Structures are given as structure tokens and as C-alpha cells.
Amino acid sequence: MRKFADSLLNGGIFDGMPIELGYVLVVAFFAFVLLNFIMLVAGVTSWLERRVWGRIQSRIGPNRVGPQGTIQWLADGLKNIMKEDIIPEEADAPLFKIAPYLAMMGFFATFAVIPFGDGLVVADLDVGLLYITAVTALVVVGVLMAGWASNNKWALLGGIRSAAQIISYEIPAGLGVITVVLFTGSLSMQSIIRAQGWEPWNWFMFDNPFLFVAFFLFFVSALAEGNRTPFDLPEAESELVAGAFTEYSGLRNLLFFLVEWGNLYVIGALCATMFLGGWQIPPVTENPFLLGLLQFITFFAKSYFIVFVAMWIRGTLPRVRVDQLMTLCWKYLTPIAFVNLLGAMIWFIVFPHGFLPMRIAMVLIGGGIFLYFLSRVMFHLRRAKPEMHLSPLA
Amino acid sequence: MGYFQNIKDTITTIFEGMAITASHFVRKPYTVQYPDRIDIRIQDTLPFRYRGLLDVDLEICTGCLACERACPIDCIVIDADKNKKTKEMVLKRFDIDLAKCMYCGLCSEPCPTGSIHHTPEFEGADYSLESLVRRYVKAPIPAYKPIKGPETDPEVAPILSRGLKYLDEFATPGDSK
User: For the whole model, what pTM was predicted?
Assistant: First the structure.
């Protein structure tokens, strides 16, 4: 982005402008583009998620607004914007008002380093992963603040749960990240992707068994950090009404949901970057524009696949209890992550430049697991003998 | 060994659960998209004995007031007089207040001809309570007089056979299809 800004300032449309003003304008422009991108992604995700759950529960889901309900999210957003913004009398008004923006900031800031393509990144920070781990923790400040300022026991419980949960799960998530960093030697998102290739056996997920485990450790911890089912205890509706968001209405409530669905995409993007080869594509074209487009599509497809899996998990698993949540983190994920990191270190010492047969074997194992999974799906279909409806439309 | 058994159980059960939900992706949704996106009206799929809105076939109403007496909440009001000269029953008023009706079916059980009966219609929503009062008798009409043997009037015969069929099925639910 720096290069792009410089090109605009020297000979571009901002030529002759004070350099500081030019940078501010460019940054504002990128922020605007990204914000709109996030709104679109979060909105479409909210619609798609409801459709996916619908099909899992043998329903259809929203299909009335627009073709197949594709602009249902727009209708929901408009409805929320037009609603009254209620601030409870007993609430701490300034904190109550500012909380959703803090949560929003925490997740929006991550988009600065998410690499959509070879040159398609706002800022390729040298400490990109560290930066993401740091700013996502800002979400918990917003949620905790919302819970506290609402002056409501459910909201407070939800906020405290969220804080405990996010801080606990930072550890296995961080250890999963470190396992990757061990193999790249860099925290920068772009160099992590450049250390991988477009072939699946050059992805970090299939590099060795330890990175394979690290992928699942990171994915589970990231789900917990993003307050996703089965870890959505901060807004457990059966116990806490809506948790930290109980007292919120209108646009502020909408912002919290934007954070939830936007975070889902961040999880997908992180998994795609660190484990699934990011934007790496086969060398098919020389055209830089086409190349950028293909890279963007590849990255988006990979990250959205992870988002889809998260939706699928949400439709499958029930919510865990608080003690189970903590047990899972401290008794299982954290020790496994440490042992896994140790194993990865040993692997790195033995094979500092990777070990191709193992990579191929990992890909084959992954394919085998997938085939076994398909056979289980077919088993359940054969046993239930349901009426089939293969089309995703209805 | 409970620790590793837990890990194994977690992985295998989540794997199996994901397989089950994945199999639902290709199953047909059960949703019936009432009211507009359906092939046939829902009313046509309901059973013959469905207790929907009440209806009266005045052609076969004998004016015996059995339904009015049976109704526990008095939502049926009938005025029937005997004509002094012809000794015929004359119906002057037959009102059913559907706003009051609780669909218990007690009125259609004692009806000798199956004149008052439940229909499969259920879309009774309206903007005022008054319009939910169905007034079946506009002008005084003679009540139906049962005759010995099968009905001969070609206009009344199908209505009567329908009413008797309804009565049969309503009175003996075990035998119905």
C-alpha cells in the first residue's frame, strides 16, 4: 500500500499535495473500501449461515427477500438501523455507547494485515501475526465494557465469561501460531504465504503431522476466541438472554453482530494464510491484474471454506458448559499444544528443509480421512433413506 | 487412560456428528411454504374430519335446535317457529359466532342430518368481530323435513349423503381412514 500511496503522490492524482495529507487520504480510502468489503462479507455470511443451518435442520431458511433471500441481510440491517437506540436509565451511558465501537475496532484493525493477494494487502507488517493476536484481544474490551456498562446481571456475566474465555484461548491459539512461525521464521503474513506453495503438499497444514494438529488446535481456539458455537457462552441465550448484548438495540446491536460475523471471516482468513497456502496459485498467467484477481478469488474461497465449516460446526454441536470450556482449554488444548510445539521443534531440527515423502503422505492421509468421512455420510443417507434434494436452492 | 480416551471420543464423536449433519445438506427440507409457494391448497390436504370453521347446509337443516343446546358457549343462535297452518318448521335466524367458537365439535355430533359440520377451512382472520358472526338465514325459509326411505329430491340428495357420511365418520372415529 505504501508503494501505491507513493505512486499516487508522485505523479498520481495527489501530485503536489502535502505528503501527510496524501497519506491520510489514501489510508481513509483503503479503510472505506475495506469497511464496505467487511459489511458485505459479514452480511452475506449472516444470510448464508441461516441457510446452512436451515438445511442442516431440514428447513429452508430465509428465501423471500430477493432471489433466494440473498438480500435478507440488507433488510435486517435496514430494520436495525431504523430501530430506536435505547440506552437504559441505570446504564453507564458513555461506556455503553462506546463499547460496540471498541469491539468493532478490535476486529476491523485485523483487516489491515490480511493478505488478499500478492500485492493486495493494506500493510504487510513484519509482526503481522503478533499484531492480529494483539488487536483481536481488543474485542474483549468492547464486550466486557458492554457487559459492565449495561448494569444488568446477565450482561455482566456474559462480559466476564467472554473475557475469561478469550484470554484463556489466546494461549492454545498463540501456540498454534508459534508452530507455524517456527517453520517460517517470520511473523509477516506475506512471508508466511510465500513460504508455502500452491500445491496442497506445499501447504503448511500437510507439511508434517505437528502442523496438521496445530491447524485443528488453532481452529478450535479461534472459534472460542470469536465466541462461536459451541463456545458462544458470552451470549448463551438459554442462560443469559443475550449475554453482554442484552441491553443493546438498533445499530449498536447490529455492530456486535457485524463483529461476530466479521470475526468469523478473520478466522477463515487466518487459517487460510497460515495453513492452507493463502493466495498461492499455479503460474497460469502473466497479466498482473488477472493474477491479482485469481489470487484474491483463491484466498477468498479458502477462507470462506473455513467459514462454512464453522457454520457447519455451529449446526452440529451443542453449547459446552463453562467448566467444560475451561477444561477443554487448560487440560486438553494447552498441554497438547505444548507437546505439539515440542514435536514440531524436533521435526524442524531433523528436517530443516522439509521432508517431501511426509508431505505426500500427509496429503494422502488427509484425502483418506475425507473419503472415510464421505463413506460415513453415505452410510447415514443409506440408513435414513430420505427424500433427496441435491440443489442448494429451495 | 481416561485422558486419551476423552480425546479419542471427542474426535470420533464430532467426526460422526459432522457426517450426520453433512448428510442433511442433501436431504429434502420438510418446510411447507404456506401460503403462497405450495402446489395444492393446504385445506385440500386436510382429513375429512378436520375441525375447521363451522358451516351449515341449510337445505338439510331440520331446525331441531340440537346444536344450539349442545353448544357449551352459546355461539349458535337459532330462531325456528312452527308455521300454524302448514305445520312446517320455519327457520328465521341461524347465526354462528365464529369468534366465540372453540371448535369442540359438540354441535355436529347430535345433528341428525350432518347439516352443521366443520370444514377444513381455517383462514378465518378478519378485521372486526362483527364480521365473524355468520348469518346463514337471510329470509325465513322452511326447514328440511326428513322423509321415509332414500331422499328423492335430486338437489338435496347429494348434500344429505355428504352430511350423513360426515356424521358416520364423526361419530365413529375409529373406523375412519
Answer: 0.81
